[in-house]
Amino acid sequence: MSDNVFVAFILTLISSITLTYIALKWLIPRLKKRGLVGRDLHKSGKVMVAEMGGIAVVFSFTITILAALFIQTFFYTSEPLNVNYTLITLLVFLILSFTGLVDDLLSLSKTVKLLLPFLGAIPIIALKVAGSTAITIPFIGVIDLGLLYFFVVIPLAISASANLTNICAGYNGVEYGMAIPMFMALVLLGVATHNVTMLIISSTMLGASFLFFLFSYPTAKIFPGDTGTLPIGGVIATLLILFNSESFALIFAPYLIDAVIKIWNHLPSKGWQAKLKDGKLHSPKRPIGYFHLLLKIFGPMREQNLVALAIGIESFVSFIVLAFFALRGGWL
Length: 332
Prior knowledge:
Blueprint: H1 3-33, E1 37-39, E2 48-50, H2 54-75, H3 83-106, H4 110-115, H5 122-127, E3 134-137, E4 141-144, H6 147-167, H7 174-192, H8 196-216, H9 225-242, H10 253-264, E5 275-277, E6 280-282, H11 290-298, H12 303-329
Antiparallel strand pairs: 1-2, 3-4, 5-6
Helix pairs in contact: 1-2, 1-8, 2-3, 2-8, 2-9, 3-9, 6-9, 7-8, 7-12
């Protein structure tokens, strides 16, 4: 990594952390004052916490990315940051954030919530910016999907990824806690492949995720809401599509397990939370989500320990996927 790129990475990280902190400190009292709060379901008593904290991540991500583009345009003769890809990722991010904001305010139906994220695929399809219509499937090989890639794979990938990170939630700190190792893996992928665009976008989300995690773990001061959870998967999917790294999507494995269990149980809107007894969370007899499954396997535990376990598993999965790419790409 060149000195300029390293400096850009550090500045991007600092910017996203700082802006997220400022936005959260400003948001929390105002959201509470306006009654935009939700109950912390895994705490004894009626603990109410500010909702829609994802607005802070929207603010941080947007300002940091636009600042990076501004600095490159006016202070660098070369363009290591791909402007088109960066703006497309920002647009996908904003579409998904707005979709989440609408849901947070209006409580959309399950069907609408599943379909609306398809809108996030429109910028990629409209500009046909995906570098190749071929995808690499582990242990199978390369398959060229042609137009199916644009009109089936991309919409499904954006919608599925956004919904995966949206429904795998509900425990203090888990949403952005699990996002940290995923974006860290993408930062390392960007470094290894000399992909400055992936590096800058991922480090922006990494900084915002880290700071938001500190505000939500072990005791939440604010919840991200759909405003904050939908863009996590959407940004990851966009980067993987733009840079033809679709098989890296294996980092979503824990989220897929959660989705399969919840779909099997008809995507319950109630009863998804664990049972609190003597300060520990217990799984119901029949798990209806990934976190229930963890409680079933490892036994009852405190909420912060369950979240730490989930983050640890996601870190391991992200490391394995990154190692697979490293060996395949000859980095090691």
